[in-house]
Structures are given as structure tokens and as C-alpha cells.
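Researcher: Checking consistency across runs. Here is Universal stress protein again:
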Amino acid sequence: MSSRIRIVVGFDGSVDSWAAARFAVVEAGVGGGLVRLVHSLLDRIAYATLLPPELTGDCDAEAVRLLDLARAELLRANPGVDVQSMIVQRAPGAALVRVSRSADLIVLGRHGHGRAPAGGRFQRVHIGAVATHVLAYAACPVVVVGTVDEDALRRPVVLGLDAAAPSSPAISYAFEAAQRHGTSIRVCYISRPAGRTDDPHADADARLQLSQALAGWRATFADVPVALDVLHGVDPAARLLDAAADASLVVVGARDRSGAPHVGFGAVPETLARNAVCLVAVVRTQRQAVTRPAVIG
């Protein structure tokens, strides 16, 4: 991976895609990185809604105008970041998956614009239309953004981890993010009850496994405070949503390419991306672990 981070943003002019773009340039600004706004062509009604009245009737020209406006706005606030743009003809989910092969990070808004299944009318679409597809197939980590409060970025990072099968890429991403923003990590393992829920030995074993899994990263990122939590519940997503209430970011491992869920988490990434009040980072389990600090900052 290049030391110069390459961040791709799915940008359609919606409020959440603006939030995603602003978050991306802040992240890229730490290390002088590159941000590429990827825009899938919308219809005329969409551009009429998103842009000041100068409608040309040419969707390609309107797309260029929207991206030029976005670049100018982002560069005013972050002049040191290289902000580029790219217009694609294909559906946004497929386009973002394709460009993820040469990116270090994909950033998406929780909601965006799209077409209705019938009639082609401009509408607001749920995360499932684009982000769920990207979360399932992207070749790099994906961050889903709702709203971004820069002060909130100093809150702890929550890392959802399986003590028996920890995701090294997710651990690496969480430590890098915490170090970059000068905050701590709260590592959460969800223990599903299989008998007594107050068994101190089971909790102690889980904490030991977590400590062993994190040992190398704690040594590399010695300035990042770490807390270990064993949480009990039958629904890992619900418990992580509770933990994320006071977090800046929640990080979990993604499904592998075979389609099998990461052990112990099932559909947790998508549930978090839909519902968490903070940023959500979903990191593929097969991505190679990074040992040097601040790779994505």
C-alpha cells in the first residue's frame, strides 16, 4: 500500500454524501492523501434539485458542474488535499466496488439519491441500495457516514472483536484511527449465553484471548489506551449499537469472499451501518494486516 492514502467517496450531491466527502478530506489531510469523488450519473430532475438554476439539459454537463462545485467547496476548507473527481456510467454500487480495488478506503453516506424501481423518479433511497452492496463486495475498508461532528471524533473507537477468531485487519484499522484522532479504543467481545451468564471464568478466558490477540498492536501503538469489555447478549449487533452510543467510530470485520460470516458476527456490519449513531468502519477479514502506524492518515 502506498504511504499516500487513496480515499474514494461515493458522491451524489445528497446531504450524507457531502458529509462523507468532508470526512474523507479530513482523513486524507492528515497525511497529504488523495480523495476521489466518484459520481454515477443522475437524471435531470436530480440535478435541478441539487444545483443552482442553470440547467443545461445535458446530464453529463450538470454532473461536471456538481463535481466542480464540490471540489471547490472541499478545497476551500482543506487546501492541502488533492481532490479529484470521476464520472461513471454504471450503477454506483458496481462502480464503487470496481474502484475499491485500487483504493485504501471507501467512504459512503448512509443515504443517497437514486431512481425508483418504476417510473425513474428522483428519490431518497435507503442504505441498502448502494452501501449494502459495497459493504459486501468492496476490496478495501468501507466507512459509512451519517453526520460528522469533528469534536465527536475524539470519542473512543469501539472495536467489535471475536475473541476466538480476531480480525487482524479490523484491529489494525481501529488502532490507526484511534492514534490519528488522539483517542482510546474500547474492545468489545459479545458473549452469547450458553449456560450461566455470570461465569467469571468464561469472562476471564475471553479477556485473556483478547489480550493475546491485541498484544502486538498494543506494543506498536503504545500511545493508544485500550479497554477490554466482555458484553453479554444474544444479539451482538444490539450490544455493539449500545457500545457505539458514546463512540466516534465502531469497527467490525466484514464477511469474507466465500460469503461465510465472520465468526460470531453474522449480519452485524450491515446492522451497524444502518443504525449506529457514529461512523461505522467495515474491514474485510482477508485484507493483509498493517504493522506500521497511521497508514490511513
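Researcher: Does this match what you'd expect to see?
Model: One thing to look at in this run: The CA atoms of residues 176 and 294 lie 5 Å apart.
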